Amino acid sequence: MTDVAGTHATAPVADDAKWQRVLRSFAENKQAVFGLALLVVLLLAALLAPVIAPQNPYDLAQISFLDAMMRPGEASPGGILHVLGTDSQGRDLLSAILYGLRISIVVSASATLIALVIGLVLGLAAGYFGGRFDAFLMRLVDVQISIPGLLIALLLLVAMGPGVGKLVIAMVAIYWAYFARIVRGVALVERKKEYVEAAICLALPRWRIVLRHLLVNCLPPVMVVGTVLLARAVLLEASLSYLGLGVPVTQPSLGLLIANGFGYLMSGEYWVSFFPGVALVMLIFGVNLVGDHLRDVLNPRLQR
Amino acid sequence: MTVFIIRRLAQSLIVLLAMSLIAFGGVYLIGNPIDILIDPNATEAERMAAEHALGLDQPLWAQYWHFLVNLLHFDLGKSFSASIPVSDLLLQRLPATIELTIVAFLVSFLGVPLGVIAGRRPDSLLGKTIMAGSILGISLPSFWIGLMSIIVFSVWLGWLPSTGRGDTITILGTQWALFTWDGIKHLILPGVTLALFNFALLIRLARAGMQEALMTDYVKFGRAKGLFERRVVWLHAFKNILIPIITVQGLELANLLTGALLTEVIFAYPGIGRLAIESIHFLDRPVIVGYMMFVVTTFVVINLLVDIVYGIVDPRVRYSGGGND
């Protein structure tokens, strides 16, 4: 494999080849394909939750306290088979998990995406313009990263109160710094390369240099960092919701579903905590498998 | 070197100052704790007296200044709900968290030999299994694993206790559970739960390090010289993979301290993390701020030490303006 990252004079062509290579090597790796398949299945399940779920867990007319804490595989008198059992309010657990999966995915994915965009813009600006803005931003990033993420989230959620939107804000506040740092680093290196100088000499507009050259080169590391942070975001959302500081009770994510089962563990009624956890593990596992492989493929150091 | 240390020290102080401002600002923006602490039927005069006693009637900047000055004297104020100094409260709970963190830290080092095995034969079945296991280990939410271990080992098998800290003995005025059999039994489940992530991380670090080390010349030389493979791997290569591991582990120790928060909540383990969550639910501001300042200070100090040690070992770090870039 030739060092694609080094031949930037023909950046667009090389990039096409690079992405093709990434796709090919991705398809050859069983773990990565398995991870991707897992993610697709979970995404579809979340997306189609209203269609495939046996009942709507938010519709009070459909759930009955009489069906509470049924074991997995039992059928309620109403005729619904509860494959994964029911919780303390008589909700079908499979349905609750499918809807919870939606919330977990939406919250963590949107938080990661917003953080990515903010980090990308600020990092590109810092890397391209340099100077005081860069110095200030990087000190801010340093401070931010030296404080544990869980603490920042706790603090913000204590200050703002619970809610899905606030949870997303708290998570964006943690993760933007990681994106900003990596993007700034790449932009700084690329900016000094000859092809950018050539572009400047050709009097290409600034936005074109930043978008067409710097941005494109930032994407591989951003994707790697993005998957790592996405997995962390799913975990953080679940942890915060478990602690009762994340999503509200009316919109239970997987973490909150797990927490709901806590009180029944001691009497051996494991399923209320067990099955949402399995869904959560599958989600994080899928993201990590894909991310792990992306890192190997996109890491220029391992291409030699 | 001195310049480097001074610069890193200044940076650390800025982080602490920023954190104190954020923590104070964030926590003091939330509802008035008087509403929770005082009898709803209290008269206006009683209410004002209580506010005055807690210093809540002063302007925010004055409260912050007061807080900052006290902080320098290691005085974190008094808990609203327990009416004892926050530092005492933290100190009471600290031994439990220290024990938990250390046990988890030590347990997680079992990942190193596994990583070495996986690194020696990355394409063997065992190597692949270990690696897949480590990805799974990183993907497992610690709180869920905690709950599942409670149901298996406490409820079904009845082998281990699931809540609390067990018997303690007093050494130098603090209570330690690590020296009683009952205390150790109480530490096993939370310790292993907390260790899981770092355990998986160490497998990956050791594997990556081993793969690199085995390609080096000194390993080839050792083999050519006819040394036993065991000696080449576990002595020569092993020593060299320890350097990156120790660097990461400094920070990971600090991460375990925050991670302990969830573990403590699940196992009703009386450490500082559980104290923090209780305080959040009671809006006990001084305790929340005290906990956060304590954890961030620990974080920053460990960061600083790691960087300084790194600066001594690797001169390049000194001139690049801090180890974080």
TrEMBL record, chain A:
InterPro entries: BP-dependent_transpt_permease, MetI-like, MetI-like_sf, OppC_N. CDD domains: TM_PBP2. This is ABC transporter permease. GO terms for biological process: transmembrane transport. Coiled coil: none annotated. Pfam families: BPD_transp_1 (PF00528), OppC_N (PF12911). Residues 101-291 form the ABC transmembrane type-1 domain. Gene3D superfamilies: MetI-like.
TrEMBL record, chain B:
Keywords: Cell membrane, Membrane, Transmembrane, Transmembrane helix, Transport. Pfam families: BPD_transp_1 (PF00528), BPD_transp_1_N (PF19300). Residues 93-310 form the ABC transmembrane type-1 domain. One of its GO terms (biological process) is transmembrane transport. Belongs to the binding-protein-dependent transport system permease family. It is found in: Cell membrane. The chain crosses the membrane at residues 12-31, 96-118, 130-157, 187-206, 257-277, 289-313. It comes from Propylenella binzhouense. It is a multi-pass membrane protein. GO terms for cellular component: plasma membrane. This is ABC transporter permease. SUPFAM superfamilies: MetI-like. InterPro entries: BPD_transp_1_N, MetI-like, MetI-like_sf.
